[in-house]
Design goal:
Layout lengths: L1 E8 L6 H11 L3 E12 L4 E6 L2 H14 L4 E4 L5 H11 L5 E4 L17 H8 L5 E2 L3 H8 L6 H12 L5 E7 L5 E8 L2 E8 L5 E2 L1 H14 L4 H17 L9 E2 L7 H15 L14 E4 L9 E4 L2 E5 L2 E5 L2 E3 L4 H12 L5 E6 L2 H9 L4 E3 L7 H5 L3 H11 L8 E4 L8 E6 L2 H11 L2
Parallel strand pairs: 1-2, 1-4, 4-5, 5-6, 6-7, 10-11, 18-19
Antiparallel strand pairs: 2-3, 7-8, 8-9, 12-13, 12-17, 13-16, 14-15, 17-20, 19-20
Helix pairs in contact: 1-7, 2-3, 3-4, 5-6, 7-8, 9-14, 10-13
Length: 434
Amino acid sequence: MNLLSIGGSDPSSGAGIQSDIKTFDLLNAHGLTVITAITGQNTSSFGMIEPVSQKILKSQLDSVMTDFKIDGIKIGMVYNSEIIKTIYRELKNKKIIIVLDPIIKSTTGGLLIEKTAISDFKKFLIPLATVITPNKFEAEFLSKIKIDSKKSLQNAAQKIQSMGTKNIVITGLEIKNDQISDFILEGKNQYTLSGKKIPKINHGSGCNYSSSLLFSLASRNSLKNAVKFSKQFTYNSIKNAKSVGYGIDITQIKDKDLIHTELTHAINKFIEIKNIYKNIPECQTNFVFSKKNPKSIKDILGISGRIVKTGNKITVAGDLSYGGSKHVATALITMNKKYPDIRSAINLKYNKETISKLRKEKWTISSYDRNAEPKNAKTKEGSSVGWGIKYAIKNLEEPPDVIYHKGDFGKEPMIIIFAKTPTLIIEKISKLFI
């Protein structure tokens, strides 16, 4: 996945281009950059701004747009009208997810957009945005509405929406003492998502939020699920913030959950496989990755919903969570009991052609007949999958790459692919469905 950040350079690496690159890298996306301005700032104070020329800005945009397939763009600091108009001319005909983070001022107090450029920001950039992510101050600044009630919050969001974007996320609302909330206006629907509040002044959380939101949207999550992901990502970055310089803390986005990181990366690769939608079953697909020595499905990370087929595309419907998968996780935990190195699995649609390809590739294949399933396994919730996997591996010395069954009355035929890691599963599937 290639994600482009258009914005200002922050030498402290707390925010701006540098922060976005760290986020993209952590999430295993390739980060591209177009710098709009050089700033002199640190954790204590804000110095000066020097915007780049239209010529070099256009050259940067042309360079990345012509050489890379870009899956999403974040627009941050733009500073003046010349920069705004240049970006608009380059992006106006592009069908790409754009997250617009309206950078008005820095945490350390610097004004990051010229007052004369505000009208052009509203006219040219807001209509380009898939979603705009102002905080309370920025939402008030853009809408010219003081947010001091639920009604004024709704009015501010609707005012910004009238400027040309369908989706608005107003972040960082302190509705309750111990919570921080985001108000979302998604088309005509509006809702609020809340989470724990960390009473800590920091540098970088806004950039962490918008760049992780872009990643999640580019991964084909719904806006609601993308906001949930970004809230948790940003919460963790604030929680881990460190005093690096002499001033305010800088957020830290290091993710200690490598299982989550690798599975996220693998799901993104899976989505990109050409024509993979043809291999999504009617019950849809789940992709799981286990902790070492799992005791139950709560030790297995999976999608709380499914990877679903929508026409000739696929979409991730749900968040990654431990215990999020039931059937594929049950298959994996049964396999793992005999073969502890096998920690990842994915289910795909069964067809004879796929099995034939697998045999030609000399994969290790096993199967079971659901017609032979004992009644007690059929009637007990969740027992069928475990019984089937046990049956398929009971006489094997080495773990199979694939286990399949041809279905039963009311039960869809299915293929489950197993491997040590999600990355190895993607390598297998990529060769299979070239």
